[in-house]
Structure formats: C-alpha cells, structure tokens
Please model this.
Amino acid sequence: MKQTKPDSLDALSERLLDFARARDWEQFQSPKNLSMALAGEAGELLEHFQWLTEAQSADLSPEKRRAVAHELADIFSYLLRLAERLDIDLIAATHDKITLNEARYPADKVRGDARRAAEYDT
Model:
C-alpha cells in the first residue's frame, strides 16, 4: 500500500474504500450505481436552495449550512468512489478540463459573459 498524507484525496478515497469493504458494499458500488447515487445527492443539495433568493442562498443559517455541508460531503464521497472504480485521477482530470476550458473560453473574449461556448461568435 502506498503512503499517503492523511488529508489527501488518496487517503480519503482509501478511507471510503475501507468503509465500503467493511460492509461488503463494493458489490453495489458499480460506476452506474455510483453515478446514479451522485445525481440523487446533487438533487438533495438542490432542495436546500430551491426556494431561496440569491441573497438567502449566500447567507445560510448554521443549521442549514451544516445540512448543505453534509450533502456536499455525500456528493464528494460518491464522486471519489466513482473515480476510484474507474481509475480516474480527479486532480489530473480537472487540470486537463481547465486547460480545455481555457481554450474554449478565452478570458479576453468571454469576461463577464456566462453564455455556453457554442453561443460565442467564432
């Protein structure tokens, strides 16, 4: 087993894997099931913001903030499990995606404009 820092993504992924193995849950954590669970948890996160104004969504009560933090943790956990099951390095994939987005959305062309890439004049 490789040595990881206790606060690293790898260490957290290992802890989630150990949690699943201790409960014999790996059999249920296929990429399909994990992606569906991820979508479900994202929906639960949305419920916390559904009827709030922009201002209310930025100023959550401590109780609501804790509930949102737990939903984010659920999302992050399923995302890490899915990446582990598919052998995807999330940090490398994110750097790659940022590079692609830098090309698709040049700062000097899109600054202050939130349209999708296909909506910009080429």
User: Anything to note?
Assistant: The domain at 10-110 is CATH 1.10.287.1080 (Helix Hairpins). Residues 62-85 form the longest helix (24 residues).
